[in-house]
Amino acid sequence: MRIWPGTAYPLGATWDGSGTNFALFSEAAEQVELCLFDAEDQESRIELAEVDGFVWHGYLPGIGPGTRYGYRVHGPYDPSRGHRCNPAKLLLDPYAKAMHGNVRWHESLFSYHFADPGRLNTDDSAPHMPKNVVINPFFDWGDDRPPRIPYHETVIYEAHVRGLTLRHPRIPAEQRGSYSGLAHPAMIDHLLRLGITAVELMPVHQFVQEHALVARGLTNYWGYNTIGFLAPHNGYASADGLGEQVPEFKTMVKELHQAGIEVILDVVYNHTAEADHMGPTLSFRGIDNAAYYRLTDDDRRYYLDYTGCGNSLNARHPHALQLVMDSLRYWVLEMHVDGFRFDLAAALARELHDVDRLSAFFDLVQQDPVVSQVKLIAEPWDVGEGGYQVGNFPALWSEWNGKYRDTTRDFWRGAPGTLAEFASRLSGSSDLYAASGRRPVASVNFVTCHDGFTLADLVSYNVKHNEANGENNNDGSDDNRAWNCGVEGPTADGPISRLRASQRRNFLVTLFCAQGIPMVLAGDELGRTQRGNNNAYCQDNEISWVDWEHADQEVFEFLCALSELRRDHPVFRRRRFFKGWPRSGGGLGDVAWLTPAGEHMTDADWNAGHSKAIAVFLNGDAITEPDPRGQRVVDDSFLLLFNAHSDPVRFTLPEERFGKAWDVVLDTAAGTVHTGAGGVHTGAGGVHTGAGGIHPRQGGIHATANGIDAEATALRASAQVTVAGHAARILRREDDRRSGT
């Protein structure tokens, strides 16, 4: 077979319509062989004799899409010095755009013998390895454009490609669990009804099932075990052809964009699937171990592990950094994704041992004209010492706000002494983000995510129940901050069931009324349960899949209405932090924090450990930031009443200057939301009214100790409103409605 010199750039396999250029970086290599595989899996080896700047390259005319390939790297095998080259092992291309097949676990995949770890294993691993695939990069994007939803208008939906769609009855069976299933009109309609503006997909980079899980009859369902940073996972493709996962993924993005929905990828650049020093040799380890991995200084056979997965990518090395940046640019420019959520992002910021916000990785992101312009979200922690870095990422970044999750859970389960921090989280966490010049949208607020309880389980279990994972219930966090409302697990008890329903609504209301970016876990809107499993990483079954057949329609309708309320009212999605109450003068500030008696909160009130109720006034007339055309933004004003006590609390509405009259637009105890669009969305026990709104007769609502009297007039200033135990109400100033604002 003829081989031309080719070029050292771009790395990977690049088809130009006439042939394919192959380029692989390895500073450790002494010789590199390109291995081609035919339909019968017969291997042909071609030496790449050209090398420039440690990039080995060659061009093969006539080789095109669908060709399967791999590499063999000859070089030193000296683990104590950090070198692990072994030409007996077929290696995956770090820049592969697609892969075919899966790892089939066998001793030949390891560079040592199980019975004698000190002896080099020279058995050929190719029969048990997946292969890289040359792809056709051309795709008809038509008029596809990124939606570019402003951060403050963003609502994120964290989802698993397979688990979300696998049991959806309106998606054809052959498309379920795939990229095409996620792009099906039934799925897009569901997202639009919820007001979702961005899907955040759990890992879709090519990943590997761990040996230990396979041995237990389980799988890595979540996918945080990457082996191909540029390749969409082949297990999520409905098409069978070689490399067909690439156009299927692109089609999914295109369809979501047409619906105005962005695509954010959960990416795992902190470690790879090759695990620790006893792990398999699949790619990076055999190509250039010391370049791609962080190794210990005193004995370089061992790996620094900030991730809990056995290794850490060496983000200090220029070629490892180049791989990360090239991957990010590829997914934006070629796959048209709109942003990234970085798993264990603190690991990427470790220059030496400490997390460094000025690390080379952040420098590269900051100056990159492509990556710096998409949504960047950090999971701001890793498992290493000093790895919890919430609030410490640079200006371009938003963060999963773990403090929001913990505080909100503590507040609604009635933990004492949480009121002050609850207020900070509700107002956008300025204590975490303002000092670095960031805005409320730096905070991605969430109550639940893939890692932990679902929303239904959060109010149904006190402790984890992970027995199905086969680890004697030792895996998963014990810091759940959950409350089962009186009974562990499922119950037919009516009062407990109603309390759980109210608690779920409390969490959702807090999430959608808090400043920042709300993130919803897929299935929470349908009442999905994992039966108390808070670490379902290995459960590719009914524990993890969204159950569409038994969906809780009342929760879904409540969340749809709540999302509509947030969308229609900019007072709930401010671009800037609150300025607070004016120090002098008689005007109203943009926010006021009030006691149940209607008085301004004092230091003593904030520090009272027994206080579990608060009223929050949001002034729609005091929004300081303009709209996109520089015009002043004016909105309705709202009063949020939160009661985390177990007993009802009577709130006194504030004096008349806050508002002369108020309407109740939401009640979590009753399950009602009035969006102002001509109706009421209600759950069990709620109030059904006519098309005229929540006050069908005399134009208002009177809250009594027993609930809502829809025949009463509007609530007047200084009137009293009773909020049920573990419940919330939202009131809108009636003055605004009558003046047409």
Keywords, separated by commas or semicolons:
741 residues, alpha+beta, 8-stranded parallel β-barrel, 8-stranded antiparallel beta sheet
Question: Mind explaining what this structure looks like?
Answer:
- The chain is of the alpha+beta class.
- It has 16 helices and 35 strands.
- The strands form nine sheets. Strands 14-15-18-19-20-21-22-23 form an eight-stranded parallel β-barrel. Strands 24, 25, 26, 28, 29, 30, 33 and 35 form an eight-stranded antiparallel beta sheet that branches. A five-stranded antiparallel beta sheet has the order 4-3-7-13-10, with no helix packed on it.
- A hairpin with a 4-residue loop joins strand 28 and strand 29.
- Helix 13 packs parallel to helix 14 (553-568).
- The radius of gyration is 28 Å and the shape is elongated.
- 52% of the residues are buried.
- Mean pLDDT is 92; it is low at 677-712.
What is the average of the pLDDT values?
92
Number of helices: 16
N-C termini distance? 75 Å
Q: What is the gyration radius calculated from CA atoms? A: 28 Å
Q: Major beta sheet, specifics?
A: 8 strands, parallel, barrel
Helix content: 10-25%
Record field, number of beta strands: 35
Oligomer: single chain
What percent strand?
Answer: 15-25%
Pairing-aware structural class of the strands and helices? alpha+beta
Q: For the largest beta sheet, what order do the strands appear in spatially?
A: 14-15-18-19-20-21-22-23
Unreliable stretches: 677-712
Shape summary: elongated
Nutshell version of this structure?
By secondary structure, this protein is of the alpha+beta class. Helices cover 19% and strands 20% of the residues.
